C-alpha cells in the first residue's frame, strides 16, 4: 500500500530497550538503564534514536556543526537507506552469501586486532562472540544490499569531460580545496606460502588434541585453550547455526557426516586444519564447534616470497611488463589488484593519498623513494592476519596546491561523478518513497521529511 511519510500515534508508545551496564570491581556494580526508542519505521525495518545519535556524533567529530539541520539530514539519509533496502527486497536484489561471509570475517578479525583480543571485544559489546558475529552479519548484509541497490540505480552513470569542467567551474574560487602533498602508491602483495613441514606440524598438534578428547577431556575446554579461530574459541569452538553451503565445502562435508556429539577426524580447509564436533541438526541448518590450528609461517617461506617479489620487480624494471599488469597477474591483495595495484583510502575512487593520512609503514618507505621507483620486498600482515611480503611503487608525488583541472582532474572527475550519482539516487528516492510505508516520530516533524 502506498503512503506518504507521516507522523502517527504509533510513536506515542515508547518501545524501551534496556541496556544494563556493569561498573566497578568484583562484587560492586552499578546498573544503568538506557531507554532507546524507535524513531522511524520503514517497511519492516526500524531506526533507533541511538543509531541517529551515533551517526550525528561521528559527523560532529569530523567538524560538522551540531545543528538541527544536520540531525534532519542524517535521519533523511537513514530513511533513504531503509527505503533502498526495502525496495531491494521487493526487487529481489540480493548479495551472495560468500561475499557477506568474506566481508564479515575481515571486519571481525580487524575489530579483534584493533581492540586487543576476542575477550576484550566481548567485554566492549557485553555480548558473546557468537552474538557479535550474528549482529555483524545482519548489518553487513544490509550494507552490502544497499550498496548493490545503489549500483543498480546509478552504476551505469558516467561523466564527460565537459560535465567535469562544468562541475569545477560551479565551485566558487574561494571555496576551492587546498591540497597538501599527495602521492599515488601502488603495491603488489604476496601471501607467504605454507611449507609441508609446517602443515604436518599443525596436523600433528591437532591429532594430539583429538587423542586427549577421545581419552575423556572436554572438547569445548580444549577449543578455548588451543583453537586459533578467536571468534569461536571464546565460545568453546561453537560456530552457531549455519545453513548448507554457507561454510567451506570441506568443513560442511565432514560435519554433516557426523551424528550429534560425534567428532570428526582432522580435516584440512583453506583456513587450516579442523577438528569438528556436530552439536545439533535443525532442518536445513546445523550447529557445530571446531578447533582450528593454522600452520605456522616459517622464515624460509617469507624468504621464498621475497624472492618471488624480487623477480616480479626485475621484470617491471626491465620493461617486460607494467606495474599494473604485474599487480593484476601476481598480487594476492584483492582490494588493489583490479586497480592496477594502486591504494585508495576508505573506498575512495581517487588514488591520490594525502601524505598525512598514510599508514606509517608506507610513509617512511616512500619518503625516501624517487617517483617511478619500486621498494625492496617488505614484511606485511594482511587485514585478516596472514603473513605476507609486498613491494611498493611510488607512481607520483604532487606539491601542495589549490585545486585545478590540470593537476587534479582525476579527483574532480570522481567528485563530479559522485555528485551525479547521488542526484540520481535522490531522484529515485523521491519517485519511490511513496511505494514504501514510512512512519516517523512526532518529535521529528520539524525536519519536513515528507517534502
From TrEMBL:
<dbReference type="InterPro" id="IPR046357">
    <property type="entry name" value="PPIase_dom_sf"/>
</dbReference>
<feature type="signal peptide">
    <location>
        <begin position="1"/>
        <end position="18"/>
    </location>
</feature>
<keyword id="KW-0697">Rotamase</keyword>
<keyword id="KW-0413">Isomerase</keyword>
<dbReference type="GO" id="GO:0016853">
    <property type="term" value="F:isomerase activity"/>
</dbReference>
<protein>
    <submittedName>
        <fullName>Peptidylprolyl isomerase</fullName>
    </submittedName>
</protein>
<dbReference type="InterPro" id="IPR027304">
    <property type="entry name" value="Trigger_fact/SurA_dom_sf"/>
</dbReference>
<dbReference type="InterPro" id="IPR000297">
    <property type="entry name" value="PPIase_PpiC"/>
</dbReference>
<dbReference type="Pfam" id="PF00639">
    <property type="entry name" value="Rotamase"/>
</dbReference>
<keyword id="KW-0732">Signal</keyword>
<feature type="domain" description="PpiC">
    <location>
        <begin position="180"/>
        <end position="280"/>
    </location>
</feature>
<dbReference type="InterPro" id="IPR050280">
    <property type="entry name" value="OMP_Chaperone_SurA"/>
</dbReference>
<feature type="domain" description="PpiC">
    <location>
        <begin position="283"/>
        <end position="393"/>
    </location>
</feature>
<dbReference type="InterPro" id="IPR023058">
    <property type="entry name" value="PPIase_PpiC_CS"/>
</dbReference>
Amino acid at each position: 500500500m502506498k503512503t506518504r511519510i507521516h507522523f502517527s500515534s504509533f510513536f506515542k508508545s515508547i518501545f524501551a530497550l534496556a541496556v544494563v551496564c556493569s561498573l566497578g570491581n568484583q562484587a560492586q556494580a552499578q546498573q544503568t538503564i538506557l531507554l532507546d526508542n524507535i524513531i522511524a519505521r520503514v517497511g519492516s525495518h526500524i531506526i533507533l534514536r541511538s543509531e541517529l545519535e551515533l551517526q550525528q556524533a561521528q559527523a560532529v567529530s569530523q567538524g560538522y556543526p551540531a545543528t538541527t539541520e544536520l540531525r534532519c539530514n542524517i535521519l533523511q539519509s537513514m530513511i533513504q537507506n531503509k527505503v533502498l533496502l526495502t525496495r531491494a527486497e521487493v526487487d529481489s536484489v540480493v548479495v551472495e552469501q560468500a561475499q557477506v561471509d568474506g566481508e564479515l570475517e575481515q571486519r571481525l578479525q580487524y575489530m579483534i586486532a584493533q581492540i586487543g583480543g576476542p575477550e576484550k571485544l566481548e567485554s566492549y559489546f557485553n555480548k558473546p562472540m557468537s552474538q557479535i558475529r550474528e549482529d555483524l552479519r545482519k548489518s553487513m548484509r544490509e550494507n552490502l544490499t544497499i550498496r548493490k541497490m545503489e549500483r543498480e540505480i546509478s552504476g551505469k552513470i558516467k561523466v564527460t569531460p565537459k560535465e567535469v569542467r562544468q562541475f569545477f567551474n560551479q565551485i566558487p574560487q574561494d571555496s576551492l580545496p587546498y591540497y597538501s602533498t599527495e602521492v599515488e602508491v601502488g603495491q603488489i602483495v604476496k601471501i607467504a606460502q605454507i611449507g609441508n613441514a609446517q602443515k604436518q606440524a599443525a596436523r600433528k598438534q591437532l591429532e594430539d588434541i583429538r587423542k586427549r578428547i577421545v581419552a575423556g577431556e572436554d572438547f569445548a575446554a580444549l577449543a578455548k585453550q588451543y583453537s586459533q579461530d578467536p571468534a569461536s574459541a571464546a565460545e568453546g569452538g561453537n560456530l552457531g547455526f549455519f545453513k548448507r553451503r554457507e561454510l567451506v565445502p570441506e568443513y560442511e562435508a565432514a560435519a554433516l557426516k557426523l551424528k550429534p556429539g560425534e567428532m570428526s577426524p582432522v580435516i584440512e580447509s583453506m583456513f587450516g586444519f579442523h577438528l569438528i564436533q556436530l552439536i545439533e541438526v535443525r532442518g536445513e541448518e546445523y550447529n557445530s564447534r571446531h578447533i582450528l590450528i593454522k600452520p605456522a609461517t616459517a622464515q624460509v617461506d617469507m624468504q621464498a616470497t621475497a624472492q618471488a617479489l624480487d623477480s616480479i620487480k626485475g621484470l617491471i624494471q626491465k620493461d617486460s611488463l607494467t606495474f599494473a599488469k604485474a599487480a593484476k597477474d601476481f598480487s594476492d591483495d584483492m582490494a588493489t589488484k583490479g586497480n592496477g595495484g594502486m591504494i585508495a583510502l576508505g573506498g575512495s575512487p581517487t588514488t591520490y593519498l594525502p601524505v598525512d593520512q598514510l599508514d606509517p609503514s608506507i610513509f617512511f618507505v616512500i619518503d625516501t623513494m624517487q617517483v617511478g621507483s619500486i621498494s625492496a620486498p617488505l614484511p606485511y600482515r594482511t587485514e585478516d592476519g596472514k603473513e605476507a611480503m609486498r613491494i611498493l611503487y611510488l607512481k607520483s608525488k604532487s606539491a601542495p596546491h589549490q585545486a585545478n583541472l590540470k593537476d587534479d582532474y582525476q579527483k574532480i572527475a570522481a567528485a563530479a561523478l559522485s555528485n551525479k550519482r547521488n542526484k540520481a539516487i535522490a531522484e529515485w528516492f523521491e519517485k519511490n518513497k511513496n511505494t514504501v510505508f514510512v512512519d516517523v516520530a512526532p518529535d521529528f516533524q520539524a525536519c519536513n521529511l515528507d517534502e
